From TrEMBL:
Biological source species: Meiothermus hypogaeus
Ranges where the Gfo/Idh/MocA-like oxidoreductase N-terminal domain occurs: 4-122
Record carries keyword Oxidoreductase: yes
Ranges of residues in domain GFO/IDH/MocA-like oxidoreductase: 132-254
The encoding gene: afr_1
Molecular function as annotated in GO: 1,5-anhydro-D-fructose reductase (1,5-anhydro-D-mannitol-forming) activity
Domain of life: Bacteria
One of the Pfam families matching this protein, by short name: GFO_IDH_MocA
Its EC number(s): 1.1.1.292
Keyword line: Oxidoreductase
Family matches, as InterPro entries: Gfo/Idh/MocA-like_OxRdtase_N (IPR000683), Gfo/Idh/MocA_Oxidoreductases (IPR051450), GFO_IDH_MocA-like_dom (IPR055170), NAD(P)-bd_dom_sf (IPR036291)
Protein name, as recorded: 1,5-anhydro-D-fructose reductase
Length: 345
């Protein structure tokens, strides 16, 4: 089977996952990487010595006529890079968040659509075993009518740690746009329903190393009257990290103990849970493999459910809606907020 030629742009922390995922995929060939940072390139060479691909400038790499481009660069440069790829008719798989504001994110989607190129988004958490199983259980009706739920994400993220991206230290809404965006996207994906209204508050604890808000609390009201409470922070006081996601319905309850593993189903009234069997996955790698495989299918014209740029705009409205609700100190109607941003329903 012929391999699709891939250029990887951005060889930092996330780019190192991508380099492995692309290079190890039998349906793809990593023909070049792009990154102006000598540090990022030398760390990649040191950590992944078995990967032997040239590092070129962006224009040199695109001149090799790849079949697709993976963008693992900071959000501030995505529009410029997607535009350059679209001009050459190249499909793009771009890391989240697509952009830091809605207008720029929409411009990314429109430039790709106008050029008729595919644009996929790095929503790799949709490809976790936990996500797939939870979605099947909930949408398959094993919880009956879902009523309420809660996501709790408690983390001490040392943003100054070597080998971790540094721009979140100074960006606006780092927790919301870098991290909560995954959780909010997962809620849309797992429940299969959109949020109608939300109330949120974003704050920054006095001890925070982040310039802008590192904590997000939200109350999400879905179209089917399901309600989800969300709490996420990067500034827990110590390294005791926590993740729990619980959903209660008329026929049962689902409890996830960790982002990457650990899912229990409790039938209504049961004294013991049923442990859901999940295949082992390497964190951030196997889920990214799932996403990449799915996007390759789309590029080849095969059936695919990859997270598209157009779909990501809905997750962006939800994510930015949390910041807006906090700013206005009131509950907001998401459809109305989306319309204000220029989102077509
Ligand atoms: N889906 C997921 O699970 C994850 C997604 N991410 C996302 O991936 C993206 C990258 O994050 P991450 O790898 O952590 O960030 P890093 O800062 O670690 O790496 C980004 C790299 O891109 C380089 N870069 C900057 N501008 C350009 C450019 N114009 N062309 C080519 N390279 C450029 C940077 O160089 P320099 O340092 O000189 O700026 C750096 O080497 C972000 O959007 C982030 O949110 C991150 C982690 C996990
Ligand atoms: O900096 C980060 C960017 O986003 C990742 C998830 O996509 C985080 O896990 C990470 O801490």
């Amino acid at each position: 089977m012929s391999q699709l030629k891939v250029v990887l742009v951005g060889l930092g922390t996330r780019g190192r996952h991508w380099a492995r995922v692309i290079a190890e995929n039998p349906r793809a060939r990593l023909i070049a990487g792009v990154d102006p940072s000598a540090d990022s390139v030398s760390i990649l060479r040191e950590k992944l010595p078995m990967l032997d691909f040239p590092v070129l400038t962006f224009n040199e790499a695109l001149a090799l006529q790849p079949d697709l481009v993976v963008l693992s660069t900071p959000p501030s440069v995505h529009l410029e890079q997607i535009t350059a790829c679209a001009e050459r008719g190249l499909p793009v798989l771009c890391e989240k968040p697509l952009a830091l504001d809605f207008d720029t994110a929409r411009a990314c989607v429109e430039v790709a659509e106008k050029a008729g190129v595919l644009l996929g988004i790095g929503m790799n958490f949709r490809y976790l075993e936990t996500t797939r199983a939870a979605r099947e259980i909930i949408q398959g009706g094993r919880l009956g009518q879902v009523g309420f739920g809660r996501i709790n994400y408690w983390r001490y993220r040392d943003g100054k740690r070597p080998l971790l991206n540094k721009y979140p230290l100074t960006m606006e809404q780092p927790m919301l746009l870098e991290q909560s965006i995954h959780h909010l996207d997962l809620a849309r994906f797992i429940y299969g329903v959109e949020v109608k209204k939300l109330w949120a508050r974003t704050t920054n604890p006095p001890w925070s190393m982040y310039r802008s808000d590192a904590t997000v609390a939200a109350w999400l009201l879905f179209e089917n009257r399901f309600e989800l409470q969300y709490f996420g922070t990067w500034m827990g006081t110590n390294s005791k990290n926590e993740f729990q996601w619980r959903t209660d319905g008329s026929a049962g309850m689902l409890f996830q103990r960790d982002i990457f593993r650990g899912l229990e189903y409790w039938k209504a009234g049961a004294a013991e849970p049923e442990e859901i069997e999940l295949a082992p996955q390497e964190d951030f790698v196997d889920d990214t493999r799932g996403l990449f495989d799915d996007f390759l299918k789309a590029v080849r014209g095969e059936p695919s459910t990859y997270p598209s740029g157009r779909d990501h705009l809905k997750t962006m409205v939800l994510t930015l809606g949390c910041a807006e609700s906090s700013r206005q100190e009131r509950m907001i109607d998401l459809l109305e907020y989306g319309r204000q941003l220029g989102m077509e329903s």
